Amino acid sequence: MGSLRARWAGAALAAALVVCAGGAFAGPREHLEVGLKAYRDGFHELAAKELRAYLEAEPADPGRRELLDLLFRAEVARKNPEGARWALERLLEAGDPEARYWLGWLAWRGGKAEEARDHLGRYLGEGDGAHAADARLLAAAAARALGRWRDAAEMYRAFLAGAKGDSRRASAWLGLVGALTQQGAPGAVVAACREALADPGVIEDREARLAIARAGAAASRTPEDAAFFWERVAEWSPDRKERARALLALGRARAEAGNREGASRALEGFLQLVPKGEEAVSARLLLADLARKAKDLRGALRHLEGALAAGAEGGRALEIHRAAFALARRLGDGESLRRHGRAILDRGAKAVSRDELDRVRWALADDARARGRWQEAVALWDGIAEGSALGRSARVEAARALLENGQPGEALRRIEPVLGAQSSFDEWLLALAAAEAAGDAARAARLAEAAAGKAPPEEAPALLERAAAHAEASGDDRTAREFRVRLAERYGATPEGR
């Protein structure tokens, strides 16, 4: 039988006559020629009918395989899967090795995934045919539809191994990554994503490479892997919000991996996109931690204050103030110390321990005294509860400041209640100086006697002498005499003096 083109060329007149006659007297040749003419002119229903009639009438035609192929195409064009299957089955009987592939293709197109998988598997089992790459992709799709993720992954890998330079490689990589993800194999997903991103076919496809980078980031179980993929998401994503999220995740991953400089760059990039809000606060806190680990305390304080400016609220803000206060104290940064210390006192009454609040008050009082604001310092020391760990010392410091600034009576009022057996020699001397400055001779006599009891041996006589003098000044001659007798007995002085 000659070529189909030659037979088409002579079919026009015969086809016209047969069609005009209604086909009543059509023989096999007329069926063929009408079928060929109809196929060429796009009348697929007529073509299929006539070609099948011819093929059934002339099963030995030497061009049978070529005609069956035309019939298959006509049946597909007119959406008749049963007719298409009949043609393919006859092709298979005629020894066409590709018919098995097309049976799989037809089954998949008809929603019959199991049947498609069976045909395609048999086709691929017979060797690499002309449609091997197509068959592997279809088999992978069928396996996915059936939830057979391992089989799907194997088909995608087989396609990728054999289809070098194929324009569908990016799609196949996406399919493989998806199948591995469904298998619950994060390590395999990460390995596949890394391999995919080294494939030029993926890198040239913007959407595919971004999707693979996302999948790799989601599957990562080590900070190094996470950083690798988030860096690419941040670089490739056209969406501002996604870039921001990727930069934040990249910063966290690099920080966990010990790459402080890289983490800082990523976090600073995030803050350029998102300067306010909870995530900005988190980024600032991580930057502060990185700076602290790098011994950059000034930078750490700057980032903590940046976290507050970014909108930290409630308990989180209080914790930031506490950390910033500690850094400011180490740095000797009075302005920051005051700002954060006041915030702690204002907000921390219920959330912070009394001892910590007292330590904050003490630090603020020291700062106030250093700036010459002694009244502010006294008020802060007075705010420390007397029964607390720092209460007694706070009263002593308040008394010292008051005495230094001409308030001996107020100094006495604070220090006397805390004097006792545990009081140091210096504290007794402070109280004595306050009583003397206040002109209270009776108190001064009593305090001088007590100070003598705490004094080093070489200083005790002079203090007893002062006690006697103050007793005399207060009109208590008997007590003065007792002090002088004690001086004589202990230190060899005469009752009238040393």
Task: Write up what this structure looks like.
By secondary structure, the chain is mainly α. The chain has a domain at 435-498. It has 29 helices and no strands. It has helices spanning 4-9, 11-21, 28-40, 44-57, 64-77, 81-93, 99-109, 113-125, 132-145, 149-162, 169-183, 186-196, 200-203, 206-219, 223-236, 240-257, 260-273, 278-293, 297-309, 314-331, 334-347, 354-370, 374-382, 391-404, 408-415, 425-438, 441-454, 460-473, 477-491. It is rod-shaped and about 155 Å long.
Report how far apart the termini are: 151 Å
Structural class, please? Answer: mainly alpha
Instruction: Please provide the count of β strands.
Output: 0
| Helical proportion, percent range | over 70%
Largest sheet: none
The helix count comes to 29
Order of helices and strands: HHHHHHHHHHHHHHHHHHHHHHHHHHHHH
Keywords:
498 residues; single chain; 29 helices; mainly alpha
Task: Give the SSE map.
Elements: H1 4-9, H2 11-21, H3 28-40, H4 44-57, H5 64-77, H6 81-93, H7 99-109, H8 113-125, H9 132-145, H10 149-162, H11 169-183, H12 186-196, H13 200-203, H14 206-219, H15 223-236, H16 240-257, H17 260-273, H18 278-293, H19 297-309, H20 314-331, H21 334-347, H22 354-370, H23 374-382, H24 391-404, H25 408-415, H26 425-438, H27 441-454, H28 460-473, H29 477-491
